């Protein structure tokens, strides 16, 4: 099949591009504490991983968070702002964020009543393990938080989610979930979602069935993060790890579950990316619609331009592009006195990384749809080999997989194109 693919020309990242993204950032996430009341075996800050700061049970000072909000407001209120009224999510992360509820309450009050940002509309969100949900739910409901509750399925599936004494958490969490559902049913339906981690004690089908039957919800189901693994924990990690696509394929009702999960399944998520990049019928903005060009000037890989999606402030005052990468990749700091972001150095460092990988990108046949973040490459400081590289044969296979999927599910082409928005 032939696609009308524009010519891709790679360009350097610029200071102006980074500052423009900051002026239009969509989410600010605060790591409000590194403390947690659970000790899950596979936690991203647990025994498997080494790419995070030492956990010391500390709280993020509210003054640092306010300083960052004021700094961002300066950009939002500047000429670089391109949005007349953009929605911005203020998210609270941990550890377990509900262990620092006073921080959350203070920031919500500051954003709603004191922060000057007339061109912004703010929403609030947080993930939680659910242990403290009963104590905090009234506040969350009042301020219409979008809440993502972590639970891996039934009691057996949830066996890795234990407290520091080794006691299972399932019964406590489910009791709190059902208290919230029964007390605030409309809020529960609209604002509560679930996240499950796939491992060797559960399966996609088992997790799906638990949430569908018990709460009539479709959970997010994700595999364990396979970046930043301690060398001595590699063997134990892969005993625990399960692949979501393979687990779904092993399900007795695979097609039905996959269709119900829609873009929360790997197949639908991947074919959505494929269609949005290669169909020729998806446009990122009005300029793209009216003046689409035959040549695109982009930065290499699928790495986000800093601040293009979010800002992540760690409990130690580090500024990161997001919470999904190692905490060694800082792009700034919030101190007791000021915000330290050297835009020129950030751009220089990114461009150095891009230069290492551009040759591979030039020869990759899937460059238009690349999802590879450079910060998830193990050898970033040395050879910088891209895991997502596709030669012509790989790309042909990639296209055939998605075209065959669409032939099998023709009705879902329209569903994807009409219902899914890519931001």
Per DSSP E runs of 2 or more residues, the count of β-strands stands at: 12
Alpha plus pi helix count: 15
Radius of gyration equals 22 Å
Gross CATH architecture of one domain: Alpha-Beta Barrel
Distance between the termini: 27 Å
Q: Strand pairing plus helix content: what structural class? A: alpha/beta
Say what the CATH topology of one domain is: TIM Barrel
Please mark out the parts with pLDDT under 50 across 5 or more consecutive residues, or reply none: none
Report on the structure:
This protein has 423 residues and is an alpha/beta fold. It has a domain of 211 residues: Aldolase class I (TIM Barrel, Alpha-Beta Barrel). The chain is 39% helix and 13% strand. The strands form two sheets. Strands 7-6-5-4-3-2-9-10-11-12 form a ten-stranded mixed sheet. Helix 2 packs parallel to helix 3 and helix 11 packs across helix 14. It is globular. The mean pLDDT is 93.
Give structural attributes:
alpha/beta, TIM Barrel, 15 helices, 12 strands
In short:
The protein has 423 residues and is of the alpha/beta class. It has 15 helices and twelve strands. The radius of gyration is 22 Å and the shape is globular.
Lay out the secondary structure.
Elements: E1 7-10, H1 15-22, E2 27-31, H2 62-76, E3 86-93, H3 101-113, E4 120-128, H4 133-142, E5 146-150, H5 170-183, H6 185-191, E6 192-197, H7 204-215, E7 220-222, H8 234-240, H9 244-249, H10 254-261, H11 266-278, H12 286-291, E8 295-298, E9 311-313, E10 318-320, E11 332-334, E12 339-340, H13 343-363, H14 392-408, H15 411-419
Parallel strand pairs: 1-8, 2-3, 2-9, 3-4, 4-5, 5-6, 6-7
Antiparallel strand pairs: 9-10, 10-11, 11-12
Helix pairs in contact: 2-3, 5-6, 11-14
